């Protein structure tokens, strides 16, 4: 079934809502530049040593990392957050933020040979086969659970092609204020000049988590996927989410995405929610060579973030991204709250996004309700006519 890749006005508006909600104030690109609010603790690390705040974890070997509170937008600690590094499959978060709103989950694609052309050697794949029919939801589960570059290629083909998708991802990054990212390969596969940063990847994950579908997919541990003999079960490659390869499932984990390539090393964006508080941690390329280092370092940073509740002083914070409303004043995000499943590991529920329209005041908008209206409108139109 042919699917029109054009973005509807409603889908574009939904992307705009996410864009308006999630940008983080820039931390200085040179992490060793110290200010009164951004002191250096060691090796380019930033944290404010307020009374009662736990020390940062020892043994952190990643080239870059960041801890942020997804609810308040405060950046609690970071090391080289703007260092440009290969992102591997964590870049799929930007791919999803860009493409996910465009196609209904039940739409079906019959895969052609052209859809699967150009998949990089050694890519992680979920097992998409030429000639088979897959729902969009099948393909997204392939992206999030198995980091399937084959699924990314099919979705990109639906979206107008590989280059078009890369260009749109670059535009989305710019709208989100993510200036460290250069997109060359939408699946995160190593490509000359392709880079991102812990800062930008955290922004992409936070943008994704306000989308119900994104939140559900990135929190899914196991799912059925169409196979040659019917369906087969696939398991998420994110070890801290599943609890595999000698690791326990992290308490309160709700996603988001892991990755690996020979150039990027191991990369991870992790989100967890405990006691009504959601944290995001991004870890890029640990150097320790320890088994499961990227997961252990992310877990220790999440522990630190939760342990420092009420004492850690932010080194950065959210700032407004000016984005034109449809016929209204520019919307300025001033707060965001994600509510929903916590220690059970389920995806966050509906989010409340607080927006202010310039100096005209503040409007509290239920993002879930906005998503619902977008889906209803889309339904009326139909009835009427992860290596990388």
Describe the structure.
With 388 residues, the chain is α+β, with helices and mostly antiparallel strands. The chain contains 10 helices and 13 strands. The chain has helices spanning 9-22, 92-99, 136-146, 149-158, 162-175, 198-209, 212-219, 239-242, 293-307, 367-383, and strands at residues 45-46, 62-69, 75-79, 108-110, 133-135, 222-227, 230-235, 253-261, 265-274, 277-286, 331-340, 348-357, 362-366. It is globular, with a radius of gyration of 20 Å.
Question: What layout of secondary structure does this protein have?
Answer:
Layout: H1 9-22, E1 45-46, E2 62-69, E3 75-79, H2 92-99, E4 108-110, E5 133-135, H3 136-146, H4 149-158, H5 162-175, H6 198-209, H7 212-219, E6 222-227, E7 230-235, H8 239-242, E8 253-261, E9 265-274, E10 277-286, H9 293-307, E11 331-340, E12 348-357, E13 362-366, H10 367-383
Can you summarize this structure?
It is built from 10 helices and 13 strands.
Task: Walk across the major sheet and give the strand order.
Answer: 1-3-2-10-9-8
The overall pLDDT average reads 78
Proportion of strand residues: 15-25%
Low-confidence segments: 1-10, 17-43, 320-386
- Radius of gyration, rounded? 20 Å
Between the first and last Cα atoms, what is the distance in angstroms?
A: 29 Å
Task: Give short descriptive properties of this protein.
388 residues, 29% helix, three-stranded antiparallel beta sheet, 13 strands, disordered N terminus, six-stranded antiparallel beta sheet, 22% strand, globular, disordered C terminus, alpha+beta
